[in-house]
Structures
1.
Amino acid sequence: MNKHSSSPEETHVLSIASLHRAPRPVPEALEAVHAGFPSVAQDYFFSDFSFDENIITHPATTYAVRVAGDSMQGAGIFDGDLLLVDRALDAEDSDIVIAALDGELTVKRLIAQPGVPPYLHPENPRYPNIAISDLQDFLIWGVVIGNYHFLSRKDSSWQPA
Amino acid sequence: MATSMTFGTVHTWESSPLLPSSRTREQCATQQRPGKQRITEQRLASAAGAAPERSSIPALVEQTNTVNINGAVFSTSTRRYILADADSFYASCERVFHPELAHKPVLVLSNNDGCVVTRTAEAKPYIPKGVPWFQIRETAFEHGAVARSSNYELYGSISARMMNVMHEFFEHQEVYSIDECFLETRLPLHDALLQAHRMRQAVWQGVGIPLSIGIAPTKTLAKIVNHWVKHGNGTAHIGTWDQFDADSQRKLLQSVPIDEVWGVGRRLTRKLSSMGIISAWDLSQQDPNAIRHRFSVLLQRTVLELRGIACIEDEVSATTGARKDQILCSRMFGHPITGRDTLCQAFSVYAQDACRRLRRQNGLATSVGIFAGISPYNPDEGGVPLPLTIRTLPTPSDDPLYIVKFITHELLPAIDPSTRFIRAGVLLSGLISSSEYHPFEQFKAQRDDSHIGQLLDSINRRYGDHSIGIGYGGVRGTGRAKEEVSASWNMKRTMLSSRSTTRWEEMMVVKAN
């Protein structure tokens, strides 16, 4: 159930993405240079690693979105969590995807196994599966690559739905 | 206008079965433009049924021609230019986070919700471009159209993403405007086409923006082919100059009015028309040297470009983001304003916006200008506009406090208290690089040493635009609230979408229910 077929060339092209990323400014070490022994540590000074750079492979096609609702709790995705969604990836069986169902963006697990019509599976027994063929309007918006779940709930910018 | 033309030999790359991504691309196309679906399927079917071998593609021999112009021989290289241009860009951006708008007519309005600046294909039959919103509001709603205020922050972010994706496909990219860029390639035509298809597919899937693409030996021709793709030609999203035979090329150029040729402005159009040059074809048949003598070297280049000889280089500022030498911050007010105090407020806000842009390019302004205008539509109302007044700063500066003080204390003359101003602007000019400025000690630049400007920037970034500032008398509210409760003259943007990629608190919400 790929949204788009991908050719090997395309995969190759996208893998170059990281090389083209804009360089981040590296802070200079704030240390005066003294005569005599130079600071050994200065040679080893690197900026702190960037969380973004290490988890986002395709910055141009990756989006952060908020979750509202409890239908994906079984997958460890809770109300108010932050999802990272890469639109450049082709959705495959059992990926968690952002899908546009009749014009509304929702998060669900995609089940696309051979011999069975593909459907969307909420990870909560209180919600029914959704057969894709029943939908008026269906589009896979992107593939969820990660979830950030606030454990301390100090994320003041979010009011649960 | 080049609409629905037919030409002798137009090879349809679109339906070529050799293009692996063509099927998915067509699917995208049908999502985008449902009306085209039937034709597309027919074309796919006929392409698949007829001749699935390479023979269905015309011979693609790289041509290295030489052209003789007045005795001088130019060689046309195998380099090609690709003009990639987003379809109804602002409206397409509004659709990225709102799939429910996919098949609906979407309109984007100018500042203050004044005029329609962008329409999707669905809206074009009954909404003319540039029409005032209040005139067509009822018609628009009857047709189920959705209107949005212009959300430039969102469009800028989507544009950067789109440009970054495109840059991965071709080595050389010149970002020409927010929604179009030139790319260069030396690949053989067939490979270049494949790569362009992949690029279009990657931008559609990864960013959600549909592109139209024109490929030609020169930028001017790439523009023309791109326009043909957008307006003259059913379902194709990519066109190449090479797909036309000589006769069709001539017909295409004949169909392009002279004022639509890249680089020919309104003033030139009048003069050229009086000489009987009314189409791109007419211009291409002129003697380049005569054109140079009569007009300019720029128009001579256009003649050569129309003949397939590339001679327009990149605009440096577009590719490298090089420093501008002036910054203008000017807006229409939501409502007309009167009085010196209110005008001071507006100048203060615009000066701070301008300073922020100045600091971003590490510049210093050596002079500052202000102006304020009155409505051209109410001549009987009277009033005295404030023409652009520029004065040199005592010392170059990037400090908003210093510049605002200079405007209010030195620059702003006495104002007629009854004049109703509808727009105002602040111009920072004579910009120099702060790193290159080494004055004598006593003429030290008035730098923003206290970093108040930076502090204001970061507070505004965190708590929303204009939540803090200098002289912000009537500006209140945080985040989105400012749209409702702000200074009376602030921009009206009543149908603004979320800035989903640049504002943490406006992030898109996905339903789990």
2.
Amino acid sequence: MKLPELWYSVVVRDHDGKVISRERRRAHSFLKQWNEFIWYFHFGGTIYPKITNGSPTKLDSHDNNFLMTGGEGDASLGIVIGTDDTPVAVDDYAMGTQIAEGYGAGQMHHLANTFGAPVVSPPSCGYSISRIIVNNSGGLITVRESGIYHQHSYRYGPVAYQFYFYYSCGVRDVFATPQDVPDGGSITVNYTLQVTA
Amino acid sequence: MIEGMKLTEGLSYEVMVRDRHGKVLERIVAPSQSYVNAWNQCLYVLNRHSSFTIIDTGGTGRSISYSSSVLRANAGAGEIGYGIRVGKGTTPVTINDYAMENPCGEGAGPEQFLHQAMAASSPAVAGPDCSFWLRRVMVNNSGSTISGIREIGCYVMMKYSPAYYGLGYRDVLPDPVSIPDGGSITVTYTLKVTI
């Protein structure tokens, strides 16, 4: 069966830029929220996907829905990583234990998400989203999970266009091998979404 | 007839043909082969918050920007710009398909169907799966049997105004089906994610 395929790759580098670990495999990690957003775009009814704090939150029509373009220092949107290795369940709504943005113990610095435009290479068409996350915490950090958070728009109250923006987790993966990122090193996570006829 | 196939994940379809009394004449259930370029390009536009040139169902490249209209498929009765369609094309699906090969029109004339409003279920979780379905009933009031229906697919909105539509997915049935006068064809697509 030909399916929408999601692939991820992880590359870990030391502080000199030398590649010290790689992992690439097909993800099986679209979560409930992903399909709820597809449903909403397709059909536009009333739905309450969970945001990343676990609260079911009404999804309202807004151009920003599904946005993944988290900028530098923004660990709430786009590719995120964590330290938990609990197997993925379809109703996961967040990373198990997300690594926060920063330079303190257990924290990493998130660079901006970047995108590769759709490329058609028959019989497939794919595009990619990537992010480099740097460890300047002063110690080694073991990364065991990655995922994608996307924007979720909620309109509250009687005032038109009074929107609140939250985040939903559409994708989560647990690595086959935990990835040790040394101090001064980085981890690059790339997701490729591909369809094949 | 293909029936009872185990569908584990992804996109699948069911085609039901009924006579004028509602009796099921034929049922086809199969995995879909058929997401095509525009589907992924629309997702890219939404995720990246950018514009991208996507070929519409008329074969023209259109600059599509992120908006809440992208991927919409909830067409009303009689609306055939978007939503599920059926046709007589037989050419196998390729990733570059941008339209149905030979779609049947809207109406009660020869080779036309009355397209009912799109319907959908809500997403539901069952074990490792989360799925929902989209469905459309198309009624043959043409006065005669419409035979040779071989392709199905779903058009999606890419831009609201001016309205541009793209092909989201398309399938070619293993065998042609015929819909008697007064009968109907119901196409159901199920979109599923599985851990």
